[in-house]
Each structure stands twice: as C-alpha cells, then as structure tokens.
Amino acid sequence: MSRISASSTMSRRSLLKAGGAATALVSIAGFPSRLLAADPIKVAAVYTVPFEQQWVSRIHKAANAAKDRGDIEYVATENVSNTDYERVMREYAEAGNKLILGEVFGVEDAARAVAKDYPETAFLMGSSFKPDDAVPNFAPFDNYIQDASYLSGIIAGAMTGKANIGMVGGFPIPEVNRLMHAFMAGAKEMNPAAKFQVAFIGSWFDPPKAKETAFAQIDAGADLLYAERFGVSDAAKERKILAVGNVIDTQADYPETVVASALWHFEPTLDKAIAEVKAGTFKAADYGVYSFMKAGGCSLAPLGTFEGKVPAEVMAKVAEKEKAIKDGSFTVEINDAEPKSS
Fold first, then answer.
1. 242 lies in a domain?
2. Are the beta carbons of 227 and 247 closer than 8 angstroms?
3. CATH number of 181's domain
4. Is residue 182 part of a domain?
5. Is residue 169 domain-shared with residue 311, that is, in the same domain?
6. Is residue 336 part of a domain?
7. Residue 7: what pLDDT?
C-alpha cells in the first residue's frame, strides 16, 4: 500500500479494496495468509471527553498496551463533540483503520450509519443498545462492572458511620445505573440501615459541578460518597470523609479518602476484538460480557493505605462473594433502572 503513488486518482477506499485483492492473490500463489496475522492492525479511537476521563482512560490504556506489544497501530482523537463525531469516524475509516473504537451514547444513529457505509471496517463502540444484524460490523460494549461495584458497596456499608451515603453520577443511563444499584445492594447487605442520596450532574466531565453536588450531599448528612464522577473525591477529601471510586484507582491521589474502588479492565474486550479482526471473524456481538469479573474485566482495587483499617470480617465477606461471583454460584443483579434517593 505504501508504494502506491500519492498522485493516483483512485479513492482511498478503492485502494483499500485493491490491497485486499492483492493479499488474496498472494495467498493463492502459495504464501500462507496466516503469516499476515502477525502484522499489527490499524486501530483508531474517537472520544468525546479527555483521555484522562475515567471511562475513556481505561480504553486508551488497553489500546496503548496492545500497541506496545505490537498487536496494533493506534491513533486517537479526544474531546470530539457529538456534532463532529460522524465526520471524525468517517475520516478514520477512509484512512484505512481496520478497527475503530469509541463511545456513541449521544450519536448512536449516526455512528451505525457510518458503520453501514464501511462494511470492511470493524466498529467496537460503547453503547446502551444491542447488536443489530443489519449492521454486522458494529459491535457494542459496555462497562458491566457491577460485580466489582457490589464488592465496593460491601466495604462502604461497613465504613459509613451515619448510614448516609451520597452518590454523584453523570447521567442516569444503564451503564451508570447498574453500577449504582450494585453498589447500593452491597452496602445494604452489609448495613441494612443504609440510606442513599442520588444525584446526576448531566455531564461526563465536569469536576467542579460534581464537587459542588457532593458538598450538598455532605451538608445533608452523607458521611461517605460514591464517586462515579471526577470531583466527588475532592469534596470528600476537603470535608474529611471517605469515598469509594469507580472505574479507576485514584487512591494515590486521595490516600486518606478513597477506601475502595471498582476497577474496569478493558483489555479482555479489546483483545477479543483484535483477535476477531485479525481472523476475519468480527461480527455484531455484545462485547459487554468481557467486562464481567469472571472474564477478567473488572476487579476490586487493592485497599492500599486502608489495608488493616477495614475490619477483617468485612474483607472475609468480600473474598467469599468474589469467589462466588467468579465460580458462578452468585450473580450480581443487573438493574439498569434509574436509582432513586432513599
């Protein structure tokens, strides 16, 4: 492909098709096509928020790990507005990327329309919706980390003194709702008297607004916060109460504040997609299952500075439940309904 003259009048998509035909001819000539599977595939990502935002940071981390081990070439664009999302997707598809990642919660229809126009490109997109056979190259994923959220809730239920827990989320959509419900279930199991203040800030990345919302919950009696968004742990730190993190481990930044975190590991999801693209078997499937704990897609972060501060009997319960989740004898309920204050 790199030897084709830049002055060629063929479209980029035509060049890609020609390249595919040439590869087929090489295989027919007697060269085993599986040798090409070792070559890195071109992967691009389109993000609506900064790379450091919790959710996107985990995708970005997994993609860079795949790049470092030579499985993929990787480029990405952050802070893409919903109105510009389709254009950036198309540019990456035209550039010959074989797999495109992103989160299309606000641009679902447009993203699936783009995928229809590029049937030879695989699209792995964060989405609240299910696979559609009408778009066979578009596979949705989601951060189904309810297992780890439930375990973090057990710790929260044990560590709250007032049984009053504040919860600040971005939007009340399934991927947020299910984590909150799982956390609440864990907290109630450990502390049946637990009550919850639930609020949503209407943004995926607005730390000041999240912080102010958390302050209001503290003023209303919360002595522990569920930090689904950045900014919440800052409020907890300033008011000297505890917080439980979500998706990433921020304890290094809040060593006296973040007692536990539910971690999302995107590597199993991405590695499955890379393998399918290389094998030519990528299809419209629900990749959310690779975020489950038994698939290695989530875990409870190490307690770090809170090691020994959480009662031993509580951690024994956490270990018991974790084992049951992994062996299938216990299933954390997936509840996508909007959680309410209680």
1. yes
2. no
3. 3.40.50.2300
4. yes
5. yes
6. no
7. 30
Enumerate residues 6+ apart whose C-beta is below 8 A from 24: none
Given strand 242-247, what is the order of strands in its sheet?
195-200, 164-169, 224-227, 242-247, 258-264, 298-300
Question: What would the pLDDT profile of 53-66 be if each residue is shown by its tens digit?
Answer: 888 999 999 999 99
Distance of CA 110 to the CA centre of its chain: 21
Domain that holds residue 247: 146-265+296-327
Give the number of other Cβ atoms within 10 Å of residue 6's Cβ.
4
d(C-alpha 2, C-alpha 173), whole Å: 44
**Total tally of structural domains belonging to the chain:** 2
- For the segment 271-298, the average pLDDT, to the nearest whole number, is 97
Phi-psi region of 137 (alpha: psi -120 to 50; beta: other; left: phi over 0): alpha
pLDDT in tens, 232-259: 999 999 999 999 999 999 999 999 999 9
pLDDT band for position 204 (50/70/90)?
confident
* Of 167, 202, 204, nearest in space to 184 by CA: 167
Does residue 322 sit in the same domain as residue 182? yes
Residue 107 confidence (pLDDT) above 60: yes
